[in-house]
Automatic annotation (TrEMBL):
Pfam families: BolA. Belongs to the BolA/IbaG family. PANTHER family: BOLA TRANSCRIPTION REGULATOR, BOLA-LIKE PROTEIN 1. It comes from Haloferax mucosum ATCC BAA-1512. InterPro entries: BolA, BolA-like_sf, BolA/IbaG_stress_morph_reg. This is BolA family transcriptional regulator.
Length: 87
């Protein structure tokens, strides 16, 4: 699955989300390697536990989590949390 397609799914299904998706390791062409990493920033995460935040992302990806994506490393932040990381 293309990185941009994953970003689009997340951003279109989570309110005001900004998603950056990458591959956390080198792709092995001999073995299908559908591991991804995502940093997602959204005000929708406000007041939610980390598990609830990650569930929102998994829900946004829908059936792709069982067909096109083998693993997804997630880092989720509210906009305020993300801004404090950059300081």
């Amino acid at each position: 699955m293309e990185l941009e397609a994953i970003e689009e799914l997340i951003e279109s299904n989570i309110e005001d989300a900004d998603a950056t998706v990458s591959r956390p390791r080198t792709v092995d062409e001999n073995h299908e390697d559908d591991h991804y990493a995502a940093v997602v920033v959204s005000p929708a995460f406000e007041g939610k536990s980390l598990v609830q935040q990650h569930q929102l992302v998994y829900d946004a990806l829908g059936d792709h989590m069982t067909t096109d994506i083998h693993a997804m490393e997630l880092k989720t932040y509210t906009p305020e949390e993300y801004e404090s990381l950059e300081e």
